[in-house]
Write a structure and sequence with these properties.
13 helices, 4 strands, two-stranded antiparallel sheet, 4% strand, mainly alpha
């Protein structure tokens, strides 16, 4: 059975464009390794060393302490010590992350996870060092709080009207689910979990800004990039969309402009060179409209 699990994990890790599953695998492996280490240290009578290790991996609220362990800005979003919170987070990550994977691709999913963790920890540090209520409090940030909410907010921004069927509730649009999650994050600031709540809000802000930026400058950057590609490179493996001849009455809709045809050719060249996952959301929508 262990061999089958190893084979499955290896296949999922090596599969191209499978960033979401890679993130889930890394979190699962780190959790199992952390659990085994905790058990061993407790059995041999060195359980306090495990607590010290967690503090070295978590983001501290003090700038001075952070200066002594700057790596915690990267490690905190991968370490979890409780099974059920991790299980719930991975379930939500799979649910919302798949939408990001389908619309933006694997690399953007990885970027949102890393950047969400960094921005979430940044908001945590600002809250505990600037707010009079929290200033001087001894606190740590550990877990994928900012990373998860970055991906959730990105999915809600990309497909706000996409509906998920919830048990006992029915279909609910993503924008309402994300909005409810943000309200819960705001409430947690005054209900005993401020570190987690502020990291959620920071990650969500990053996810929203990230998607808006990608949708705004993505197509423009691609146009600029392809201007520097030689024509002989752009003509290789060119794909064409063949529209069936309609036997009905001629539609009054005007034919596509020359600029639209040029844009479609550019998108198809990009698909041939780098695959469908390399397209931005605007390019996927443009290609979908042209294929109708």
């Amino acid at each position: 059975m262990t061999t089958e699990i190893n084979r499955y994990l290896r296949q999922q890790w090596q599969r191209p464009g499978n960033g979401l599953m890679q993130i889930i695998i890394v979190n699962g492996i780190i959790f199992v390794a952390t659990l085994l280490l905790h058990v061993v240290l407790v059995v041999v009578g060195y359980g306090s060393y495990f607590d010290q290790l967690l503090q070295r991996l978590a983001v501290p609220a003090s700038w001075e302490a952070l200066g002594q362990q700057p790596w915690s800005l990267l490690t905190h979003c991968w370490v979890h010590i409780r099974f059920f919170p991790l299980f719930w987070n991975l379930l939500m990550l799979q649910l919302f992350g798949q939408i990001v994977m389908d619309l933006l691709g694997s690399r953007h999913c990885w970027a949102l996870y890393w950047l969400g963790g960094l921005v979430g920890s940044g908001f945590f540090l600002l809250l505990y060092n600037l707010s009079p209520h929290f200033r001087g409090t001894h606190a740590f940030l550990l877990g994928m709080h900012g990373s998860l909410y970055a991906i959730m907010a990105a999915a809600g921004t990309l497909a706000p009207r996409f509906s998920l069927h919830l048990l006992f509730i029915g279909p609910v649009q993503l924008r309402y689910l994300v909005g409810f999650a943000l309200l819960v994050a705001c409430y947690s600031l005054i209900d005993g979990a401020p570190a987690m709540g502020i990291a959620h809000l920071g990650g969500a802000l990053l996810g929203y800004a990230y998607v808006k930026q990608v949708m705004h400058i993505g197509p423009w950057l691609q146009q600029v990039f392809w201007r520097f590609v030689p024509p002989w490179r752009r003509s290789r493996h060119r794909l064409r969309i063949i529209k069936p001849q309609s036997k009905g009455p001629v539609s009054a809709t005007p034919a596509g402009t020359k600029e639209d045809d040029t844009l479609i050719d550019t998108i198809l060249d990009k698909v041939a060179a780098n695959g469908y996952d390399s397209l931005t959301l605007a390019e996927k929508q443009q290609l979908f409209r042209a294929s109708k």
